[in-house]
Description:
Blueprint: E1 2-5, E2 14-21, E3 28-32, H1 38-64, H2 70-84, H3 88-104, H4 112-116, E4 119-120, E5 123-124, H5 127-130, H6 133-136, H7 141-151, E6 162-165, H8 172-176, E7 179-183, E8 186-189
Parallel strand pairs: 1-2
Antiparallel strand pairs: 2-3, 4-5, 6-8, 7-8
Amino acid sequence: MKRVLIFGGFLLFLGGVLLFKSETSSQVKPIEIQAINEENLQAKTNEIEMMNELVKASKDERKEENTIDLYDAMMLMKIAMAEAEGEGVEGKAMVMAVILNRVKSDDFENDIDTVIFEKTNGVYQFSPLADGRFFEVKPDTECHLALAAIERGEYDDIDALYFENKNLKDTWQSKNCEYLYTIGNHKFYK
């Protein structure tokens, strides 16, 4: 028999009996529940697989249309805020453009999350991950405006794959990449 136990607000299945704790009583009381048969389980599994395919197709369509899902949007805004706080909409949009260019490039991973968290030789590609700032920042209005500009395609012609603090000298980027321009406190390269 399966059972469900509400323990501190959570349900647990244990056999075919639902156990719950009354808010006014400390006793655990059993309630019989209908077991899910294999047909119902297979139907639900098929339904979930179909939904996953629709989500994947939808994500592919959004990629072609410059539309970014909510999770990826939040990731882009957080990295932009952590890297370019105080640099205005353009600086934040440029950081997002670099991330998206890496996603499109064969030289990097093919999704936003993986690009942001990528490590080379055990070192994060983006310093706010290493120092924890990425996890602390909250995107501001400029981040939302930058994301909207990205989705409108205003930065599609930007081909930068790297950026660094403009005050750094003699870096890997300056030795191995083509310098493009400086915007705010960052130098951009491809």
